[in-house]
Structures are given as C-alpha cells and as structure tokens.
Amino acid sequence: MSADLRTALRLAADGLPVLPLRAGKVPFGNCPACAKNACGGRPNMKTPGPCTCPHPCHGWAAGTTEPQVIKSLTWARAWREAAGMAYHPGGAGLTVVDLDNAEVIAWARATLPTTRTVPTTRGEHWLYMGLMQSANAVRPGVDIKSSMQYARWLGPGIGTMATLPDVVRALIVKEPAPARPVAVTVPAVGGGGECPHRTPTYLDRGIAMAEQRITEAREAVHATVYRTFLAVLSTHGWCGCLTDAHTARLFTAAQAKGESPRHCTDAWTNALTRLGL
Known about the structure:
This protein is α+β, with helices and mostly antiparallel strands and 277 residues long. It has helices at 3-13, 67-70, 73-81, 102-111, 166-169, 200-215, 221-236, 244-256, 261-275, and strands at residues 18-22, 26-27, 84-87, 94-99, 116-119, 124-129, 135-139, 142-145, 151-152, 162-163. The chain is built from 9 helices and 10 strands. The termini are far apart.
C-alpha cells in the first residue's frame, strides 16, 4: 500500500473527503464512461462523493471518505500515477484561505484571526472551521477554497484551528459598482403633445414612485425595470416633459439593483418602441 493511499485512508477516517491528484496539481480527468457529461451531470452536483462510475472523476466531486472506494481497483491506477493528494474542504465543513506569497501572508497576519497554518510551495494555507462559498482572487494572491473546490493536502499544519470569522466571509462580497447613468432623451410627439402636468411636482412624484418600485424589486428585476420604464413613458413621455435628469434617476435606480447600462438602454428603447414614441 502506497504512502498516499495510507494517508488517504487515515484522512477519510477523520471525515476529510480525499482524491488523488495527477501531475500539475490537477485532478484526474473524467473516465471514458463520463466523458462529455455522458454519466448524467456529475459536474453539476452540489455535494461531494464518488462518481456513479466508481472512477475518481469530476475534480473536487470525486472526494470521498468511503474506504472501500479509496481502496478499490478502479482507484488503484490513479493512486499509482498520483503526483499528490487533495481534499474537499467544504465536504468536511472547512475553509482554506490560500495565501500565495509573503506579502499576502503579512496581510493575513495583520488582518485575520490566528488559526492553523500549512506551508505551501509559495505561501501558506490558513484553515478555519466553517463552510462558505469558494472564490478565486478575492484580493491579489488570495483564494478561498471551501464548497465545490479542492485543496492540496500538504500536511496537518500547526496551530489550533479557529472558527471561520466574518472577515473571511466578507472577502467574497464585492462592492457594487457605482451606477453610471446613461442619458437618453425622450423624443416629444411630433408637433408637441399637450402637457397634462399642472405642476412639476406631479412629474417628480411619478419619478420618485418609479425609483421606489425598482429599488424594492426582490425578483424579476429585468422585467420590473422594463415595466416601470413603460409606465413612466406611457404617463409622461408624450408631452416631452421628461428630461435627461429624470431618465438618469431611473437608470441609477436600475443599476443599483445590478442592471447594466446596456440593459437599461435596451429596456428604455423597447418601451419607446412599444408606445410608438
């Protein structure tokens, strides 16, 4: 029995889903039975475990704690050819902060709670107890490996493992991009339409209500933005009272909900077309 196989069985007994790695620190590719997703979608599975074909397929999802699978004949060739071993942190309820160089290690020591550390080729792995979404390049030289991701096994490390802190969870939360309003001038009806707005307050109140409708959308944001644009134009678009400033307010509200400038422009144009403006 190889050293990697013995280590794999020991880790699996401790609840760590393991898988062999080939040269280049990458998982073994799918077997012929699973090529081109023929086995029914294993890459889309949300939980780790052996593929139904019993080979160590599908990257992180091959990670298993089942000794009979790890010792099986179908895995034997992979262990013979393995250049290393990996594990699925999320499958064991762990998160690995992968620090790629001395600069980000210094940042971690100044920013993150002390926890168990494992030396790597270029940096360190910091291990925390807790599951979160994986993400690459959360800052230069820093990756998060937890759910649906694998990490190389490089030894048990040193230190006491701490609970996953909020400061690590916050690393994957991206600040929303500043809204960039796109000015669109609403054309007046040919010859000018009759203005029904006795005071500017009526128009301003309508724009404010439209902003609120977009801001409070919890689902179907695309459709809400389009319907709101359509409602504003059907009420205020015929007389030419809408200005670029009004349009900018609507676009800003939409972009704050994650809409792109391109989508805002398309939704506005489609509403104009539908109304014949």
